[in-house]
Design brief:
The chain has 217 residues and is α/β, with parallel strands linked by helices. Helices cover 53% and strands 17% of the residues. The chain has an eight-stranded parallel barrel with strand order 1-2-3-4-5-6-7-8, surrounded by six helices. It is globular, with a radius of gyration of 20 Å. The protein starts with a strand and ends in a 5-residue tail after the last helix. Bound molecules: erythose-4-phosphate. Erythose-4-phosphate binds next to helix 7. Residues 6, 26, 28, 107, 127, 129, 131-132, 163-164, 183 line the site of erythose-4-phosphate.
Length: 217
């Protein structure tokens, strides 16, 4: 499973990228707001750091305007993925932009039917939002499983990009369900390393190494 980092925080991207943990980046208007930066400027900086796909989201609501914004965003770098919302206009923009050879991520997906439409429109990535479904007592992981099954039934090449990930467990759950990509905030990716038995075991090894007077270099 590819790891995308869901942030526009340059330092966080740089840190994880140096460890080989970043196969791509996703942003959205809320993350751009959080960064306090200009969208074109910060997205360019991200593309200079990361070689994998970098999603930048349009803000227009009508297809023609989304297409113009998508073309402008795609000029930033070759690895830009234009992110459009899962509306009828978003699907129109997706079809036009992918026909032009651009990568498109269809976002705000909350149902298998929506994912089916995105695949028909030629989306490069579909972004089902797990956490926001869980927030309203629906089953976000079940949606990942349903989309995986449907895409596999018909050989759709659209990649399942599990989004709105809130916990480290979501990451392994998505991997078990066969998501192609999971995008998560830096804190969630970092939390994946934690295990109480690792900490406990390490404490014991450190204490025993001290008692044994072990010195390696
Ligand atoms: C995905 O591309 C979105 O940017 C993101 O995963 C949304 O996550 P949230 O529901 O935690 O805001």
């Amino acid at each position: 499973m590819k790891f995308f980092v869901d942030t526009a925080d340059i330092e966080a991207i740089r840190e994880l990228n140096e460890l080989g943990m970043v196969d791509g980046v996703t942003t959205n208007p809320s993350l751009i707001l959080k960064s306090g930066r200009d969208i074109l400027e910060v997205t360019k900086e991200i593309c200079d750091i990361v070689t994998g796909p970098v999603s930048a989201e349009v803000i227009a609501l009508e297809a023609e305007d989304m297409i113009s914004e998508g073309r402008r965003l795609a000029e930033i770098a070759d690895n830009i993925v234009v992110k459009v919302p899962l509306t009828w206009d978003g699907l129109k923009a997706c079809k036009t932009l992918t026909d032009e050879g651009r990568m498109v991520n269809v976002t705000l997906c909350f149902s298998a039917n929506q994912a089916l439409l995105a695949a028909k429109a030629g989306a490069t990535f579909i972004s089902p939002f797990i956490g926001r479904l869980d927030d309203i007592n629906l089953d976000g992981l079940q949606l990942i499983s349903d989309i995986r099954e449907i895409y596999d039934n018909y050989g759709y090449e659209t990649q399942v990009l599990a989004a709105s990930i809130r916990t480290a467990n979501h990451m392994s759950d998505c991997a078990k369900l066969g998501a192609d990509v999971a995008t998560a905030p830096p804190g969630v990716i970092k939390a994946m390393v934690n295990h109480v038995l690792t900490d406990k075991g390490l404490d014991a090894f450190v204490a025993d190494a001290k008692k044994a007077g072990i010195k390696i270099v």
